[in-house]
Amino acid sequence: MIEIFQNIREIYDFKKPAEELAHFVEFFSESSPSGFDQYFAKGHSQSGMFASWTPTFYINLGAPYQIELDKVFHHIGATDDILILRNGQVTRHILPTDRIFTVKFYPGGLEAVLGISQTRLDDRVIPLEQVLPPILLMKMKQPISFTERVLIIQEYLLLQRAKRTKKDHYLKIVNDAIGEYHTTGM
User: How many whole angstroms separate alpha carbon 145 and alpha carbon 75?
Assistant: First the structure.
């Protein structure tokens, strides 16, 4: 078993988000077929991840796999995409056929970008189509490059963040007005 805090960069390609998302998204990654050869040659077959309260999207581009959340096994089908919180021990059982694209958020990042509270995600495997539009997931699964996938999901996340920021701006104006009303004793 290889722990996430060890060097697992050999089995994934990574990309940092655009500056506008850097406070919310830690990274984008995708399984690296060439890295898997080295990984399995070293006798590894699973990746254990410590609890980090980091919501993570797993978009399946390949075959079924298993993921274990606090000792409960979940079968993820070839067409299944999921969201997990990683609030406990997570182990993904890795196969040479894996092709998974991930988006790892910082704690609170999912709520800041998409308005989804982490509190309702504890110890659950959430189907990603409950969070992202099916058309977006279909685009992500096309036979395109890792860089193209990053651009597609990043564009969507930036758009959603801009919508939330605009809404938050008006909420701030209202809250400021209410605060001023109370402060002045009107």
Answer: 26
User: Domain containing 17 — which CATH number?
Assistant: 2.60.120.10
Name the burial class of residue 117, with classes exposed (0-12), middle (13-18) and buried (19+) by CB atoms within 10 angstroms of its CB. Answer: exposed
Q: How many CA atoms lie within 13 A of 148 on its CB side?
A: 8
pLDDT in tens, 18-62: 999 999 999 999 987 765 555 555 555 556 666 567 899 999 998
Task: At 64, list the tokens.
Answer: 């079924």
Split into its structural domains, the chain has a count of: 1
Nearest-angstrom CA–CA distance, 68 and 75: 9
Q: 34 and 97 in contact (C-beta within 8 Å)?
A: no
Cβ–Cβ under 8 Å, residues 73 and 66: yes
110-144 pLDDT per residue, tens: 999 999 998 888 888 999 999 999 999 999 999 99
